[in-house]
Amino acid sequence: MMDMDKVLHYNLIFRPEPEGGFTVVVPSLPGCVTYGKDLNEAKKMARDAIFGYIQSLKKHGESIPSDVDDFVATIDIEVKSKSKKLAYA
Questions:
Q1: 89 vs 79, 86, CA distance in Å?
Q2: Which residues contact 48 (CB under 8 A, 6 or more apart)?
Q3: Strands 33-36 and 22-25
């Protein structure tokens, strides 16, 4: 039987760094973090890091997660600047 190519989907979080460039985090692959000097390089580095991560999972016989059914959303939380303590209910 021939191996079929499979397309896996991963969500990426790009965080701008104060010194320049971007750190990239792959939430569904714990510890999969990389860096690029610009967005294009950061995405390329993320692709390489994900590929290496998947190869390690295969080598160890572990399942390979994917974000194919996940989606990303953002939410804004207003925090009052005068309040120095957060109250917990």
A1: 16, 10
A2: 34
A3: antiparallel
Cβ atoms 20, 77 nearer than 8 A: no
Q: What is the mean pLDDT of residues 55-82?
A: 92
Is 81 inside any structural domain? no
Residues 51, 29: Cα–Cα separation, whole Å: 11
Residue 19 per-residue DSSP state: T
Radius of gyration from C-alpha coordinates of the chain: 18
**Rounded CA gap, 28 and 17, in Å?**
22
Is residue 33 one of the residues assigned to a domain? yes
Tell me whether residue 51 is in a domain: yes
Q: Is residue 78 part of a domain?
A: no
Summarised one tens digit per residue, pLDDT across range 12-57 is 999 999 999 999 999 999 999 999 999 999 999 999 999 999 999 9
Cα 42–46–50 angle (5° rounding)? 175
